[in-house]
Design goal:
four-stranded antiparallel beta sheet, Dna Topoisomerase Vi A Subunit, Chain: A, domain 2, DNA-directed RNA polymerase, DNA Primase, Chain A, 28 helices, elongated, five-stranded mixed beta sheet, alpha+beta, DNA primase DNAg catalytic core, N-terminal domain, 5 domains, transcription, single chain
Length: 660
C-alpha cells in the first residue's frame, strides 16, 4: 500500500519522537534537556547502565553511541514492536489521532507530481529574484531600502519581484517546458474566465518565498506595490503543496535557532519576522495571513515549550492575542504554554527595531506576561465591579474560561492565580487573610485587622482585665468549635441537610466564619467541588488551607475520613450542642445579673446556682477537649465575673436574713 503525499510528513509533525520512545525507556534526568528536545536514556536495544541512547526531538532521529542503532519514530516502533513499516505507521497514526488513508494505487504518481510541483516553485523563486534587479522593480527596491533591507538581507530571504503584467511568469515557465497544469497546480497562475490564456497569480508585488519545515518552496506571499490594490498582502492559494493553516513562515530556520536556545517569537507578518531575525532574534515565525490555527500552535510547541507572542500594539493585535488564548486553553499541557509581549501602541516589531533597536524588543520580551495575566486583563479592563452582580458576572466568565482547560493540574493553578488577582482587585491589593488560632484571643485575621502597624493599640483598664481574659477565653472556645463545624461540613457536604437550622442560628463572631457559614448554606448541596470553588473565590486561596491547619480541626475525625456521613453527623451534633449550651448559659447569667439590681432572693440564688453548675459542666467539657487538642491550660475555673456575682448574691442573702 502506498501512502498519499504528505501523509508521513504530517505524521512526523504531529508526533514527538520523545513521546514515542518515552514509552520504552527511562530518561536520564541529569543529561536530558526537555526544553531543547535533547533526551538521553539507556539504550532499549542492548543492555547497558549508562545513558548512551540519544533522541533529538527537533530533528526526529535517535542514535545509540553504544550499538549504533539509529532511525526515526517509525523505525523505532518497527524495532521495538517487531512490526512492519505500514504497521508501525498505523500504530503512530492511531496515537496521533490520524486516520490511515484508503488504498490509493495512484499514490506514487501523486508523489511524483509533488516533486514536479516543488521544482516548478523553485523555478518561480529564481524568476522573481532576477526580476527584482530589473528596471521594472525600481519602486520595489526603493520601498525595501526604506524598510532597511540590506543586500545581504534580500539574499538571505530570497526576496523577489513579480512585475506588472498578465503572463510574465506564465510565459517564462512555459518557455522552460513546464506543463500548464503544473503551473496552475502550484498556484502560480489562474485559468482565465474569458477564454484566454491563464494569468499570473502575482502581479506588481514584492515576493516572499514560503518554505516548509524541510526547506522546500511551497508558496509565496506578495506585498502589493499599488496602494489601491484590494489586498495589501496576498498568499498563494491552497495547493497540493501548501496548506496555510499547517504552515509557518521561516519554520525551518526558526526551529534551528530555537534548538540553540533562542526564544521562539511569533509575529504577525513577513516583514516582522525578517526584522526580528536580522536583529538577532532568529527563532521568529509568523502565521500566513490568518489567525493562528490549532495545527500551527502544535507546530510551535514542537519547536519550543513556551513561544512568545509578539503582536502589534493596536486593537487588531490585542484581538488576535485574545483569539489565541481561547484556542490555546483547551490544548495546554504541563510545560506547554504561551507568553505575550505586546508592542507599544501603533508599532509592530519591525517599527520598534528600526526606531529603537533590538534592545527595545528585548526589553519587551523580558516583560512578557503569561497567558493567565492576559486572560484576566481581557475580563477586567475597562470594567467596574461595584456590585455583587458584577462581581458574580466576572466570576462566572472566568470559571467558564478555566473550565476549558483539560489538564486538571493546570486548571487548578490557573484558578489559584485568578483568585490572587481577584483578591488584589476587590481587596485593594491586600494579601488573603491567613487566619490562625490564637490561644490568647480567638482568630488572627491579617486582612481585616482593625489596628494597623504604627497605630497605638488601646489598653483595657485594670478593673476590666480579668473579665476581658475570660471573654477572650470564651471567644476562643466558641471559635474553635465553629472551625470544627465548618471544616466538617465542607469535608462532608451531605451532612448539611440535617443541620441546616443549626447553621442558620450559628452567629459566627469571626467574619471569615460568617462567610463560610453563608457559603455552606448556599452552595453546600450544589454540584461537586462548587462549594470549595466558591470559598476560594470569596476568601482567597489560603482560606481552606488555614482552616485545615488548625490543630483542633486537623485531628477531627471528619477531616481524617471525609465523606463519612455518620462521623460528620455525630461531630456536628456534639459541637452544636456545646456552642448552644454556652450561648444559653451566657443568656442566663446576663438575666440573673440584671435581677441583682433588686433584693436578692432564693429564686435568684437557685438560678445562679444552676447556671454555675452548668458552667462547671461546660468548663469540664472544654477542659477535656483542650486536653485532647493541647491548645490551652488544663483545669476548670469559674469566670471571675460569675464568682463576683455569686459572692455578691451570697452577701446579699446573708444580709437579708440578718435583717429579718
Amino acid at each position: 500500500m502506498s501512502l498519499p503525499p504528505g501523509f508521513l510528513d504530517e505524521l512526523r509533525t504531529r508526533v514527538s519522537l520523545s513521546q514515542v520512545v518515552g514509552r520504552k525507556v527511562m530518561w536520564d534526568q541529569r543529561k536530558s534537556n526537555m526544553g531543547k528536545g535533547d533526551m538521553w536514556a539507556p539504550c532499549p536495544f542492548h543492555h547497558e547502565k549508562s545513558a548512551s541512547f540519544h533522541v533529538d526531538d527537533r530533528k526526529g532521529f535517535y542514535y545509540c553511541f553504544g550499538c549504533q542503532a539509529k532511525g526515526d519514530a517509525i523505525g523505532f516502533v518497527q524495532e521495538t514492536e517487531n512490526v512492519g513499516f505500514m504497521e508501525a505507521v498505523q500504530i503512530i497514526a492511531t496515537e496521533a489521532g490520524m486516520e490511515m488513508p484508503a488504498r490509493d494505487p495512484k499514490a506514487q504518481q501523486k508523489q511524483d507530481r509533488r516533486t514536479l510541483l516543488v521544482d516548478v516553485m523553485e523555478q518561480a523563486v529564481q524568476f522573481f529574484r532576477l526580476q527584482l534587479n530589473t528596471g521594472r522593480a525600481h519602486d520595489a527596491r526603493a520601498y525595501l531600502d526604506r524598510r532597511g533591507m540590506s543586500a545581504q538581507s534580500l539574499e538571505r530571504w530570497e526576496i523577489g519581484f513579480a512585475p506588472d503584467g498578465w503572463q510574465n511568469l506564465w510565459d517564462h515557465l512555459r518557455g522552460k517546458g513546464v506543463e500548464e497544469d503544473l503551473i496552475i497546480g502550484a498556484g502560480l497562475a489562474k485559468p482565465s474566465t474569458k477564454g484566454g490564456k491563464p494569468y499570473d497569480t502575482f502581479r506588481n508585488r514584492i515576493m516572499f518565498p514560503i518554505r516548509d519545515a524541510r526547506g522546500r518552496a511551497i508558496a509565496f506571499g506578495g506585498r502589493a506595490m499599488d496602494p489601491n490594490d484590494n489586498a495589501k498582502y496576498l498568499n498563494s492559494p491552497e495547493t497540493e503543496l501548501f496548506d496555510k493553516g499547517r504552515s509557518l513562515y521561516n519554520h525551518a530556520p526558526a526551529r534551528t535557532a530555537a534548538g540553540k536556545g533562542q526564544p521562539l517569537l511569533v509575529a504577525e507578518g513577513y516583514m516582522d519576522v525578517i526584522a526580528l531575525a536580522d536583529g538577532g532574534f532568529e527563532a521568529a515565525v509568523a502565521p500566513l495571513g490568518t489567525a493562528v490555527t490549532e495545527n500551527q500552535l502544535m507546530m510551535m510547541w514542537r519547536i519550543a515549550d513556551e513561544p512568545i507572542i509578539a503582536l502589534d500594539g493596536d486593537t487588531a493585535g490585542l484581538r488576535a492575542a485574545m483569539r489565541l488564548i481561547d484556542l490555546a486553553l483547551p490544548l495546554l499541557e504541563a510545560g506547554k504554554s504561551l507568553r505575550f509581549a505586546m508592542m507599544p501602541e501603533g508599532k509592530d516589531p519591525d517599527d520598534l527595531i528600526r526606531s529603537q533597536g533590538p534592545q527595545a524588543v528585548q526589553a519587551l520580551l523580558d516583560q512578557a506576561v503569561p497567558m493567565v495575566r492576559l486572560l484576566w486583563q481581557r475580563e477586567t479592563d475597562g470594567k467596574v465591579f461595584d456590585s455583587p452582580e458584577r462581581k458574580a458576572g466576572l466570576d462566572k466568565s472566568l470559571r467558564e474560561k478555566i473550565k476549558l482547560i483539560r489538564d486538571p493540574s493546570i486548571r487548578k493553578h490557573y484558578g489559584d492565580d485568578i483568585k490572587e488577582m481577584r483578591w488584589a482587585l476587590f481587596r485593594g491589593s491586600r494579601k488573603p487573610p491567613r487566619a490562625g488560632f490564637n490561644p490568647s484571643g480567638g482568630f488572627k485575621d491579617g486582612a481585616r485587622g482593625k489596628w494597623k502597624p504604627g497605630k497605638p493599640v488601646p489598653q483595657p483598664l485594670a478593673s476590666t482585665k480579668s473579665s476581658m481574659l475570660a471573654a477572650a477565653d470564651d471567644q476562643a472556645a466558641i471559635a474553635m468549635r465553629e472551625a470544627v463545624i465548618l471544616a466538617s461540613a465542607i469535608a462532608t457536604p451531605a451532612v448539611i441537610v440535617e443541620f441546616e437550622a443549626n447553621f442558620e442560628r450559628m452567629p459566627c463572631a469571626d467574619p471569615d466564619h460568617a462567610i463560610l457559614r453563608d457559603l455552606i448554606l448556599r452552595y453546600g448541596l450544589g454540584a461537586p467541588d462548587q462549594l470549595r470553588d466558591e470559598i476560594l473565590y470569596a476568601l482567597g486561596p489560603y482560606a481552606l488551607e488555614n482552616l485545615h491547619a488548625l490543630r483542633h480541626v486537623a485531628i477531627s475525625p471528619c477531616l481524617r475520613k471525609p465523606g463519612n456521613l455518620e462521623i460528620a453527623s455525630l461531630t456536628l451534633s456534639e459541637e452544636f450542642a456545646k456552642i448552644e449550651a454556652r450561648h444559653g448559659l451566657d443568656a442566663e447569667l446576663a438575666e440573673a445579673e440584671e435581677d441583682l439590681s433588686g433584693l436578692a432572693d432564693e429564686a435568684v440564688t437557685w438560678r445562679l446556682g444552676q447556671a454555675a453548675e452548668a458552667r462547671n459542666k461546660a468548663v469540664r467539657s472544654e477542659n477535656e477537649d483542650r486536653a485532647q487538642y493541647d491548645i490551652a491550660d488544663n483545669g476548670a475555673r469559674l469566670d471571675r465575673e460569675e464568682r463576683d456575682l455569686l459572692s455578691a448574691l451570697t452577701d446579699g442573702i446573708n444580709f437579708s436574713r440578718k435583717q429579718r
